[in-house]
Amino acid sequence: MNDRLAILGGEPAVKIAYPEWPVHDEREVEAVAEVVRSGHWGGYPYPGPRTTAFLQKFLEFQGGEYAIMAANGTVTMEIALRAAGIGWGDEVIVPAYTFQATAAAPMAAGAIPVIVDIDPNTYCIDPQAIEAAITPRTRAIIPVHVGSLMADMDAIMAIAERHNLIVVEDCAHVHGMQWRGRGAGTIGHFGSFSLQSSKILTSGEGGILICKTKELADAATSVVNCGRPAAGHDAVTIMGANFRSSELHAALASAQLERLPAQTRQREAMVGYMDEALSEIPGVRVFRPDPRITRRSVYLYIFAIDPAVWGVDHHAVCAALEAEGLDASTGYPPMHRYDLFQPQLTRLPVPMAHPERFDFAAMNLPVATEAYEREAVWLPEAVFRAGKEGVDQAVAAIRKVYEQRAALAEAAALRSR
Ligand SMILES: Cc1ncc(COP(=O)(O)O)c(C=O)c1O
Description:
Layout: H1 26-38, H2 49-62, E1 66-70, H3 75-83, E2 91-95, H4 101-108, E3 112-116, H5 127-133, E4 138-141, H6 153-163, E5 166-170, E6 178-179, E7 182-183, E8 190-194, E9 207-211, H7 214-224, H8 247-257, H9 260-279, E10 284-286, E11 293-295, E12 300-305, H10 307-310, H11 314-324, H12 343-346, H13 349-353, H14 366-375, E13 376-380, H15 382-385, H16 387-403, H17 405-416
Parallel strand pairs: 2-3, 2-4, 4-5, 5-8
Antiparallel strand pairs: 1-9, 6-7, 6-11, 8-9, 10-12, 12-13
This protein binds pyridoxal-5'-phosphate.
């Protein structure tokens, strides 16, 4: 039978191979070879000429006036907080649904991550939850723009202004994204981007921090470069570390950046088509983009299934989609499920000093928990880079699993016996 699920021995629905990531040709090879021949490989003196040139080009694409480059998109957030003078005992509000880096960065700076729930319509931080978590010790908010959507930056900036808070946008997923015509990462005081190998702009490893003012950029430059002042002599004046990236990374990132505008357009052209097609499948919740998103980038495409309609949760659905040839995953655990932050396990200074702030059993984060435990399905950017056929095949696989959900539920029930 043609429509038998691949996980139960049928033919996979996806008949194409999705394109590999990252893509490269001789341009990347030559860019790196040129750095090797120059003898100027590293990040010192900081910033090197290729790093400066790359950052200029990135700002032209993303917006903003000042930026620094660093080793990855985790330390960029730590650097931002340190540059803003945020440290021991300060509170930084972060969403429950994100990679651990968003909470690890404040901890590395000595601050307490205060974990709040997400909006069920975007899986991004819920502004009302931010407001409810503010105390006299709150100093910053780190909204994360998740997948192919953005947190409500208008609401977040209004809260930040009212309470005099620093906003560090975690833009690890959203190079190219725009909110009311402004680049993600240029609305808050800082915008932090990851260039890690899966990201939609990559140099293998690396990070970019867009800074709102020259003062913040100078402070960030010192932190990234072992505390040396941004200009002039070599004396170490503030506490920093070697967070630098290399000229090799900048050269590779520059070559990749030339591809990014066309890749962004290609994915954006297909993502609305996916929204329409999926919204016709019962029990699928499509996250419609906020109309204030004026250019949409796609690192991950996330939708939610209703387990009551499908008869199974997202674990069974993703396993079935994987067998159909679609690289689907269930996504992040909510932050309070990361053992990483348990004081007794990590013995890190921040949880050891404030164990009451890491009492995860006491945290009530129903939206992030539901996303993690039952409903979220993530699809990779390659589905959109493969054009209409890529989306059509993905939708066919999802529809097939939906139509065969009774067989899937039966198999799942048998397995759990
Ligand atoms: C939301 C988010 N923030 C931060 C990071 C950290 O970036 P990096 O791996 O470059 O440290 C990642 C992923 O890697 C991420 O997905």
